[in-house]
Give the backbone structure.
Amino acid sequence: MIKVLKPGLLTSIQDLGRRGYQKYGVITSGAMDPLAHRIANLLVGNKDNSAALEITLSGPVLEFQEEGLISLCGGDLSPVIDGESVEMWRPVYVKPGSELRFGQAKQGCRLYLAVAGGFDVPEVMESKSTYLRAGIGGFHGRAVKEADELVFGEASERSQKIMEELRQEAEDSSFASMDWYIASEFLLVSQEVQPVRVMPGRQFDLFNQESKAAFFQEDFQIDSKSDRMGYRLEGPALHVEKSEDMLSEPVSFGTVQVPSNGKPIILLADRQTTGGYPKIAQIATVDLPVIAQMKPGEKMKFVEISHREAEMLLLEREYRIHQLIQGIRLKFQ
Amino acid sequence: MDYHLYPLGDQGVLIELGEDINLKVHERVKSVSAHLEKMNWDWVIEYVPAFASVAIHYDPMKVMEKEGDSSLYAYEIVCAYVEKELEKITPSHSEAPRTVEIPVCYGGEFGPDLAYVAESNDISEEKVIDLHVGGDYLVYMIGFAPGFPYIGGMPEEIATPRRKEPRLQISAGSVGIAGKQTGVYPIETPGGWQLIGQTPKALFRPENEIPSLLQAGDKINFKPITREEFDAYKEEEK
């Protein structure tokens, strides 16, 4: 069990989302950066969709009431255990009584804390993700607060093996981490103007020439009014050739839609199930983690790729994750 | 059947079945969703029907596992499956729609905008209620919020533009009017609809297998109730 001493800016329990209920208007929720979330789980011997903590920008202070096997993946929020900094992207054994806190956001803005066994919260509509606005799922349907006690689920055999190996190494220290590293392709690369790969959206052709050109030539900056639902972008105003009312139609993670004020919105994990604004583009699934780690004020540039390329990149990424799963299995049979 | 398929990102396909909100298009959306749901394709994550389209969110990895030696890519394989099924469908009206009764306590503290709706349409408050109760309502789709029905069929005599200043908090169960539409808020949310009443019946039921009281294709009967009946109903639902 982990006790929350301070909650941080927005710390919530998420898995890979609620699937199959969008037809009832229920949003998917789930991790903003599903890649970091999945790897964090795999590293501690969990299934990749186990419930983990999504920590945003300014992290919480957490006290381990019992020993645990954890991993910290995603944005680098300078994790520290009992005064000593902890390496990310690897399994870490933590002794009871240790205190995990976070410092400056060095890179990215969302960090995933996975524990062996996952966090034990009830499933609501087949998912443990927190649906903040409806107040369901996760820990009592809300972000975690001071004094909350987060209970671990049952650790798998594989988790226990990893834990045993590390427990012996810990000796006098509060924690011990595996000297593994994750293939660099999974890690974040931040650039001053982040390139983001997109496919043209369903209504791309309805936009006027200037808007179509500007979309790929200019930079767009993330507005401060951005959250898990969507990122609002500042940049050249985008307009359709002739505005006509559009019927609401389904959208997905990474849809870029443009309301009549001309400012695009990227729809993210807490997006509504349908949208009535023209879709200028769709972000390639492989680049969603890049977006999820960007902060307000940061800039991006859209790079066009074909629909087929996007799918191939996704299949390649999944193949690499599959290799990672195999690697962990081989090491801890 | 006329349709168009478009990619919805790299893990989705959008089946467009029309361009307007009308009964004919609605029937097609219903037939297509019902038919595809029965296919039980294991690569499908979920179907999402809307006014004139149905989205299929799918898992391209599962598609390729099955069809790995195909020279096509996952999207093309999915489209081929979908097209084959769409050719078989003839929209039918055979299934009688379900009618769901929604009790509403009109006016008073529950309907702070009832007077405004009456005034702006130059009719009495009683007439607004009569007209609202008398509509022939159909749920076209569920969206915007969990269990929120997009309802067609409200008499135009009570159409009223949205409030200029949206309210920051609207209670769950509030019944409102926005333009030619009427709707019921399933959860507490900010919003700009003109509120004319409130239902004690829960539209969003997260503990149920089907978490939405209403579903696309349902007919609705609004039934006026008194404040006492409202309270009794609330008590019963607990």
